[in-house]
Amino acid sequence: MQLDNIDKQAFLESDWQQRPRLIKRGLNNVDLIEPEILAGLAMEEGVDARVIEHRNQRWSVSHGPFEEYESLGEQDWTLLVQAVNEWMPDVHALLEAFRFLPEWRIDDVMVSFSVEGGGVGPHVDEYDVFIVQGAGRRHWRVGERQATTPTYPCEDLKQISDPFNAVIDEVLEPGDILYIPAGCPHDGIALEPCLNYSVGFRAPNQAEWLAQLADMALQTERLKQRYTDPKLSSSTPSHVVTNGQLEQVKQLLKSALDADEFNELILRAQSMSKRPLPEPELPMMAEQIPALLTMNNAMLVRTPGARLLKQADTAHYFANGERFTVTEGAEMLAQKIAELTDEVPMSELAPYCQDMCSQELLAWLVNQGVIELLID
């Protein structure tokens, strides 16, 4: 799936994280999921789904799993389902259109189904998002980035109370794409039953980064340098924390940030999937790989939501929070799998699996849940 009617480099230089952009007819095929299938998915345990209603000037939010939808009627409600790309391969394929952006930044694909009048109200997001119009039409108003005042019309629904001037005021039709940078106010109202696919890009704040990296450091037993006191004075009361002591703590933390091993912690964190990846029933052994490469009914597929990242200018690959160092002979296989978007026969990988490191890499990725082995 490829984007049309856009110069990607020009977009990155002029629009990305700077201003909203409407891309008319950006995708040709947006028939990715039927509303009935989406509604059925929202009935399943473990699926993050919400219904937002706006009736008689009152907002309400209910959470799944849902049992029925008939009581909602035919106007003024929206069903939103998170991470549909992790459940539906056709929706996962949508991400291929956005691979000109860093893979680790992609969060998930939220799919919404709205009846006439459905929407979630004016709001801002703390992340960048591409909204792809599926079936039906929706009227969108989008403003430039501005300071906003949050309001909570009901529990679990955050909107803004500030008016905004729309720099985009358009009706989106199937295949149109709306790019909205973080912090830009927007509001979309369905003109008829319609589907929207929201490709969100995660942007952890400083506290979230530090918390995740601290967990990674503890798990991998990294950054073990301890605090030592600066020069002390016996005349300083014991309950007083001096500026020198505060500076010593900050220097300790800064030295951690500057350490080469901190780069590895960041990559471990970036390679983590949003949800736990599936593990094979039995661990894959590298010795099993040669036989699998000769099987006509053995297929490999990237697990939706899994990330395989390479640290630039090194031989290190990261997946599911773990590191694997590849040899020169295994580099081509690692690259092939990192770029994998569709199912491929195992036999197609045979030319790249001639040495033990390649076979160990393949087994490692299966055991990490990054790729799945399918045998008919």
Automatic annotation (TrEMBL):
* Secretion signal, residue range per the UniProt entry: none
Q: Where would one find coiled-coil regions in this protein?
A: none
Q: Does the entry feature the keyword ATP-binding, yes or no?
A: no
Q: Which Gene3D superfamilies match?
A: 50S ribosomal protein L16 arginine hydroxylase, Chain A, Domain 2 (3.40.366.30), Cupin (2.60.120.650)
This chain belongs to the protein called Cupin
Per its UniProt record, the required cofactor names are:
Fe(2+)
Record-level Gene Ontology MF annotations:
2-oxoglutarate-dependent dioxygenase activity; metal ion binding
Keywords carried by this UniProt record: Dioxygenase, Iron, Metal-binding, Oxidoreductase
Native source species: Idiomarina fontislapidosi
Which InterPro entries has this protein been placed in?
Answer: JmjC_dom, NO66-like, ROXA-like_wH
Q: What is the lineage of its organism?
A: Bacteria, Pseudomonadati, Pseudomonadota, Gammaproteobacteria, Alteromonadales
Q: Where is the JmjC domain?
A: 90-218
Pfam name, any one: WHD_ROXA
